[in-house]
C-alpha cells in the first residue's frame, strides 16, 4: 500500500517524458521494462480516453451486421492487438462485448492485465503474441481494434516493414464483413501505408475523435474504420468531419488532409480507368481481373517490391499477348530494360511494348523498367531480387511450375567512364561520358571510343555523340588493326577495362569529320533539297549563311564548318554552360566563319526578321542582338536555319524542340527571314503521331501562305 501511495504522490509524467523513458517502440525489452516500472494498475492511455472515444467507437462496432437474435457479447469476436495496460478492452467488456482477445508481445503486461481482470472479467482472454505474426487461423475475428499499435510500429527511421506485416495479418484474421478500427494520430507516413492497404474490397471511413477542452491545439486522435466487403469494389474514403473545422495541431491537420486528398485522387484515377500504377496486392485482389488467367490484350502498369520486403522497388508493365491462339515459347517471361534504354520508344510506349511481346513469344510478359536507383546493382542481383516478386504474376498454367525465364535488353555498351558531371541552372544535370560499344557489325567506328553529352532531365537523353581518335584524325586501316588487336585481349575485368579506356580516351580528341548521331545525319541530308542553290552560291564566291539554334556539344556546326568552306555559321545557344562544355570537352572552336551568340533562339530570329524585313543589312553581335551593319560586316537573308533544341517540358508531348519553336508566330518569322531558296530544318521528336502530324500541318500552312 505504501508503494502505491508514494506513486500517487508523484507528479504525473508528461507524454514526452514517457516516450523518452521508453525509447524504441518496437523493442520488446523496452516495453517489458516500461510496464515493470509502471505496474499493471497504473494504466496509461496513449491517445484519447474512454469518455472521448465512447460515442464515436461504440456505434462503429455495433453497426457490424449480425443476426438480430444474438446479443453483441455472443455475436462479435473482437481482437485488441498491442493492448498494453490500456483500459479500452475493459470498457468494451463492461459495455456488453464479452468475446474479447487481447494480445501483446510483452509478457510483463499480459501477466499484469490477466491478474487485474481475472475476477471481474473472467471471459476476457490475454495472450503473449507478436502482432506482426499472429497465431490465429484465417477469418477468426469480426473486429480488430487497434489503439496506437500501428503508429508504434511505424517509426519513420525503421520504415514500413513491420507495419506492412501487421496489416497483412489484420486482413488475414478478419472475417468477411469484418472491421479494422484503427485509432491513430494520422501522421502522413502512417496513412501513406494504411490507405493503400485497404483499397480494393474495403469500405473506409475516417472520423475525428473529440478532444478534451484545451487552451491550445494539440495532437488529435482519429479513427479509421475499414470494413471488409464481399466484393473487390473500390470506393472513395469518406470523412465524417468538416475539414476546415479541425482544431488540432496545424501540421497534423495539413498532413492528414493531404494524405486523404492524395489517396482519393488515386482511387478516382483507378475508377476512371486511367493508366495508373497498381500494387501487386491490388492486382491479387482482382483490381484488373483474375491474374491466374490470361486475358488477351491486358496491359497493366504496376509496382513491384517494397522496403523491408525486397532490396529494390521496380516499375513494371504486365502484358498478356493480344493473340492467345498461337504457339508460345513460354507462358510467362520477364524482360528487364536497363535505365539507359528505358526511355526508348520500343520500351516506353504502349505500341512499342506490344511489339516486344510479339517478338518474345510469351503468352504473358512482365517488362521491368530499371531506374537510377538500380544503377549500381549487378544484373544477377536484380534477377534474384525480382524472382519472388514476379512469381505471383505468373498464370496458373505456367509451364507446370517451371522457373520464369528472364530476358534483358542490352544497353550495347562494353566500357563506360564519366569524364564530367555537373549541372546548369538552365539545362539541369549534365553528364559527359566516354563509352565503347559492343561491336555488333563490321563498322570499325563501333569499336572506337565515343564521347557523349547527356541531359538527365530528359530521361537520360544522349544529346550529342562524337567519335574519339588520336589527334582528332581518322584512318580506318590503322584503327581497324588496333581494334582487332584490342578485341583479342578484352577478357580483363570490367574495372580494369574502364580504367584503361579512361586513360586512352584522355589522350584522344573529338573527330569532327564524322556524325555519330543519326538525327544529325538526317539534318544534313536535308541539304540535298537546295544542293543546286548551295553550289551556285559557292561558285559565285559568296557565303552561304546558316543559323544553328541549339549548340549542344557543337558537333553539327563543327561538321558543317569543316565540310563547307563557303558557309558562314551563326550558332545560337541559350545556356553559356553548354558553350564552355563544347569548348572544353568536344573541341569546339570559333573563327571568322563560326560565331556563337548566347541568346534566346526565338528572340534572335524575331530581331533579325524585324530589321531585315525593313530593308536593312544586319550586323550580328556575340550577345545575340541584331543591329544595322557597317560596311565591313554585312548580312542579308539567311539561307539555312536549323533548330536542334530539346524541350524541358514533357507535358507538351514534344521531346524536341520546345513547343515555342513550332508555334505559328515563330514559323512565320523563319519564313520571312529565309532567302528565296532557303532551307528550314527542325529536329522534331514526339511519341505522339497526332502531335507530329499537327506540327507538320502547321509548317505546311505557313509555307503556303502568301
CATH-derived topology of the largest domain: Rossmann fold
Name of the top-level CATH class of the largest domain: Alpha Beta
The H-level CATH homologous superfamily of the largest domain, spelled out, is Vaccinia Virus protein VP39
- CATH architectural name of the largest domain: 3-Layer(aba) Sandwich
Strand order of the largest sheet: 3-2-1-4-5-7-6-8
DSSP, total strands = 26
Overall mean pLDDT score? 81
What general outline do the C-alpha atoms trace?
A: elongated
Q: What is the SS-derived class?
A: alpha/beta
How can the largest sheet be summarized? 8 strands, mixed
Number of separate structural domains: 4
What is the first-to-last residue Cα distance? 105 Å
Helix content: 25-40%
Write the layout of secondary structure elements.
Elements: H1 2-9, H2 15-22, H3 28-38, H4 50-62, H5 72-75, E1 78-81, H6 88-94, E2 100-104, H7 107-117, E3 125-128, E4 141-147, H8 149-153, H9 161-173, E5 174-184, H10 188-197, E6 202-208, E7 222-228, E8 238-239, H11 250-272, E9 277-279, H12 280-284, E10 299-304, E11 314-320, E12 330-337, H13 345-348, H14 350-360, E13 362-369, H15 379-390, E14 406-408, E15 413-424, E16 428-437, E17 449-455, E18 461-469, H16 476-487, H17 494-506, E19 509-511, H18 518-525, H19 531-539, E20 544-549, H20 555-563, E21 567-573, H21 576-586, E22 594-598, H22 601-613, E23 618-620, E24 626-628, E25 638-643, H23 664-673, E26 674-682, H24 689-704
Parallel strand pairs: 1-2, 1-4, 2-3, 4-5, 6-8, 9-10, 12-13, 12-14, 20-21, 20-25, 21-22, 25-26
Antiparallel strand pairs: 5-7, 6-7, 10-11, 11-13, 15-16, 16-17, 17-18, 18-19, 23-24
Pfam families: Methyltransf_11, Spermine_synth
GO molecular function, one term: S-adenosylmethionine-dependent methyltransferase activity
Organism: Gossypium mustelinum (Cotton)
